[in-house]
């Protein structure tokens, strides 16, 4: 069985997490245990849940973890928007990291559909 690291969806989610850590480093100090922490946890949850579900080797369990990853990705996108609206992120930084988040979302949505289809095929 290949590693979760071979999954394009995991790679993009990891890229997003790294980008979030980079931009979050510039947030105000008073946000260290608030928005910065929440944003980082939400972003890191996307590749972590993908890896966790993949590691089980069971499509039904994997699908559950991918759904959790999708929720964390939506949370990440909201926190990025909030950071922009609070002027913690400039337009260029926001567009860059939001673009990676959008790519990750497309990949995750398509991947979830593929795994869901595999689950359906197994029960026919």
Give a structural overview.
The chain has 124 residues and is mainly α. The protein has four helices and no strands. α1 packs antiparallel against α4. The longest helix is centred in the C-terminal third of the chain and has 32 residues. The radius of gyration is 15 Å and the shape is elongated. The mean pLDDT is 95.
Q: End-to-end span in angstroms?
A: 24 Å
Order of SSEs, N→C? HHHH
Oligomer: single chain
Number of helices, where a helix is a run of at least 4 consecutive DSSP H or I residues: 4
Low-confidence stretches: none
Backbone shape:
elongated
Percent strand equals under 5%
Question: What is the number of E strands?
Answer: 0
Mean pLDDT score, rounded? Answer: 95
The structural class is mainly alpha
Helical content stands at over 70%
C-alpha Rg (nearest Å): 15 Å
Largest sheet: none
Features of the shown structure:
single chain, 124 residues, mainly alpha, 4 helices
Summarize the structure.
By secondary structure, the protein is mainly alpha-helical. Helix content is 79%, strand content 0%. The protein is built from four helices and no strands.
Please write out the topology.
Blueprint: H1 8-24, H2 35-56, H3 59-85, H4 91-122
